[in-house]
């Protein structure tokens, strides 16, 4: 799953000339301070005079999520100090933010701040994240990105565009089913964030997959027991012949379908799971499933299958960054096998 909140939303969901102008001025302003030690020194002196936090300005990085919002937030924080420093420089005086630019940047910052926090939370690697996607979308639509009384028209437009983009991005039926199943298998949420009209289909899908798990568990011992005989036949160079009874047995199994006891066990397990109390949101669902594995043996297999999916591509991006730090101009002759080992050690030590 990909959760490109900041960059894609700014480029696609907030196409507005006012935003483009304000962000362009913001970038030029930050660059003028980044490449001049004199401007940095003057900014520090003015910060002390105005009792502002002595923070440096942040530069937007195209490959870092949330860097644009961080740049805007820092410029708004140091707005008075920046204006005073620029007022003493004729060449850079035109970069002083106007009140229109400040209003636009404040609207953008207010709309994007929650997205940055949720993006950081969903980008973790050491906890379950895919089951949080559906609750997060629900929270955006009903609370965080909902129109407020003090919102400006521009802020309302930005929020509306963000919600439209996110809802369209995850409107695919296959994606929705995956998110619903992952949310249902999380004991913190279960069917809470699954639409009522699709809850039946999600439960039916769980039953089908549980039946497959049960068949695989029952089939595995027979296959394991047959391995020595097959190996003995292969070692003796003899080809084992099938009798007619084996063909009729397979056909009878296909026609008969699953035994009633199997369906009853699956229905009982699902009913018991959904009737238990939900887990506290701050608890670890993997720990819960580890303890409840004996009670829900089939569902625990499905939980292990779905809850391991990352909600974002951050983990793969971090691996690429680690590889880039290892394979440099001075180490360009490393063999692929050595690179793989070094990346593995860097990510696991």
Structure description:
- The protein is built from 16 helices and no strands.
- It has 349 residues and is an all-alpha fold.
- The chain folds into three domains: 6-171, no CATH class; 196-306, no CATH class; 314-348, no CATH class.
- The protein is elongated.
Structure described in brief:
This protein has 349 residues and is mainly alpha-helical.
Number of helices: 16
Q: What's the total count of β strands? A: 0
Largest sheet properties = none
Number of separate structural domains: 3
Percent of residues in helical segments? 55-70%
Strand and helix map with partners:
Elements lengths: L5 H8 L3 H18 L2 H13 L17 H11 L1 H9 L11 H24 L10 H12 L8 H17 L3 H12 L14 H38 L7 H13 L3 H16 L9 H7 L5 H10 L7 H13 L9 H13 L1
């Amino acid at each position: 799953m990909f959760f490109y909140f900041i960059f894609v939303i700014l480029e696609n969901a907030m196409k507005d000339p006012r935003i483009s102008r304000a962000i362009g001025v913001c970038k030029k302003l930050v660059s003028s301070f980044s490449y001049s030690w004199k401007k940095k020194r003057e900014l520090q002196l003015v910060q002390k005079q105005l009792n502002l936090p002595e923070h440096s300005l942040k530069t937007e990085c195209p490959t870092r999520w949330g860097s644009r919002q961080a740049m805007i937030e820092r410029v708004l924080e140091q707005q008075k100090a920046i204006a005073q420093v620029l007022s003493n420089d004729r060449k850079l005086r035109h970069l002083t933010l106007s009140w229109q630019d400040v209003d636009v940047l404040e609207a953008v910052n207010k709309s994007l701040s929650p997205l940055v926090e949720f993006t950081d939370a969903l980008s973790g690697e050491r906890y379950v994240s895919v089951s949080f996607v559906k609750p997060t979308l629900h929270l955006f639509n009903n609370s965080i990105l909902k129109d407020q009384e003090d919102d400006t028209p521009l802020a309302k437009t930005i929020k509306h565009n963000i919600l439209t983009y996110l809802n369209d991005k995850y409107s695919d039926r296959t994606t929705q089913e995956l998110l619903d199943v992952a949310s249902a298998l999380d004991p913190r949420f279960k069917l809470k964030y699954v639409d009522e009209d699709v809850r039946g289909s999600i439960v039916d899908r769980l039953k089908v997959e549980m039946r497959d798990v049960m068949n695989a568990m029952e089939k595995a011992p027979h296959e394991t027991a047959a391995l020595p005989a097959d190996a003995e036949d292969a070692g003796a160079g003899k080809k084992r012949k099938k009798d007619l009874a084996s063909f009729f047995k397979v056909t009878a199994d296909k026609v008969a379908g699953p035994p009633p006891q199997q369906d009853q066990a699956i229905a009982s397990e699902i009913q018991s799971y959904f009737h238990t109390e939900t887990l506290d949101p701050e608890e670890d669902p993997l720990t819960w499933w580890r303890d409840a594995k004996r009670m829900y043996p089939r569902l625990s297999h499905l939980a292990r299958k779905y809850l391991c999916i990352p909600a974002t591509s951050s983990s793969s991006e971090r691996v690429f960054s680690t590889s880039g730090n290892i394979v440099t101009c001075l180490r360009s002759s490393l063999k692929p096998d050595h690179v793989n080992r070094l990346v593995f050690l860097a990510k696991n030590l």
